[in-house]
Amino acid sequence: MDADVDLLLTVGIILLVLSIPSLLSAWVESRVPRLGAIMTIAALGMIVSALMTKPGGYAFNEVPGVMVKVIVSFFQ
Questions:
Q1: Domain ranges of the chain
Q2: Cα 61 to Cα 10, 31, 57, 66, distances in angstroms
Q3: Residue 53 and residue 24: Cα distance in Å, rounded?
Q4: What is the pTM of this model?
Q5: pLDDT tens digit at each of 76 positions of the chain
């Protein structure tokens, strides 16, 4: 179960980072950022869910290690 929560956190962070170009593009072109907003809401939902599900939560300095662990386990 711990791996599932780590995966949820990692996917949420990656999705949040990938939503930034969409939000900036919409802002520069004076459009409504529909896709960027949906991606951001989904990413924040995943991150909050992971933070609430894991007992004790995550320390800020733990997050890079968790992400590396998930990525390494994905390629094994």
A1: 2-74
A2: 14, 36, 12, 10
A3: 31
A4: 0.89
A5: 678 999 999 999 999 999 999 999 999 999 999 999 999 999 999 999 999 999 888 999 999 999 999 999 989 8
